[in-house]
Design goal:
This protein has three domains: about 30-55 and about 90-160 and about 340-355, ATPase, nucleotide binding domain (Nucleotidyltransferase, domain 5), CATH 3.30.420.40; about 170-200 and about 275-330, ATPase, nucleotide binding domain (Nucleotidyltransferase, domain 5, 2-Layer Sandwich), CATH 3.30.420.40; about 205-275, ATPase, substrate binding domain, subdomain 4 (Actin, Chain A, domain 4, Alpha-Beta Complex), CATH 3.90.640. It is about 45% helix and about 25% strand. It is built from twelve helices and 18 strands. The strands form five sheets. Strands 3-2-1-9-10 form a five-stranded mixed β-sheet, with helices on both faces. It is globular. It starts with a helix and ends with a helix.
Length: about 350
Amino acid sequence: MIKISCGIGRETEKRMSLVSWFKDKLLCDLAIDLGTVNTLICLKGKGIIVQEPSIVAVNRQTGKVEAVGKRAKEMLGKTPQNILTIKPMRDGVIADFEVAEKMLDYFIKKATNNRNIFLRPRIVIGIPTGITQVERRAVKDVAMRAKASDVFLVEQPMAAAVGAGLPISEPTGNMIVDIGGGTTDIAVISLDGIVFNHSIRIAGNEMDEAIIQYIKKKYNLLLGEKSAENIKMQIGSAYPLDEPMTMEIKGRDLREGLPKTIVVDDQEIREALEDVVSSIINAVRIALEKTPPELSADIIDRGVVITGGGAMLKNMDKRLRVETQLPVFITDDPLTTVVLGAGIMLDDIDLLKKISLI
């Protein structure tokens, strides 16, 4: 009897293993945060599989894609004349349809590991609130041409709210501020819907550009995009720091045309970023002014949640807290909040159908 029992156990184990194998092959639904700076993809049942820069390196002569994502970013500013690095997303929308399609197709194949050649994934994509119907259609078309079976478009603040664990289905006001690379989206959410939203095309990229222009004007030093982004991440801030910081930066002297090294401090970079930060603060003020009174009372109690890469700017939460006199919270992982929220929706198809855009 022991032998028979063991035989049945092994047979059952084989069947379970086979079922598990098929299930793994069938699980290919995806949630995507198609960002201006980074693209993140969450595979249903597996979590975040792809987190790479939204950059493609293309051969000018042949049109062939030479690199995508991290490898393409490493080439930024260092390519020969026949290689062009392209950012197909601009201000949260598709600027180069053909390159965006190639990029998305590459990331989808990487996320699914080509696990199923017969099934096409359902895809949930987070998009900015302020884009037009034509721009929405472009995003959907790119995903469909990248072999999706069905595409659901969800506004990024809504996805971020779900990812942050906010009670969006309750009759209470939830304010979320998503500071991305190309856009800042502010939304007040209640009863599974956006009561008010405000979007500006000012965010992380404009911060980088502001640093480049400031250093150019003050020091006659030309910086590259990667250098400006690194300065922002290292010593950039929206409000004075507890401890002063300095950083050595390298660029090209515009007078002599030679490489040059200078030292800048956090106060200078804060000054460079002031106009961009003020624009984001003003956008939040507009949203607060236009929020219905009952929901405003909820926001006073519950506070404002900020997410996105821009939320990681040092003391951004403190600056917003001082300016609005409201509690301000940063999500645990601002960069992944939108894609995690979209991933949660893959498991709640009723909620997805209710809040997705046509």
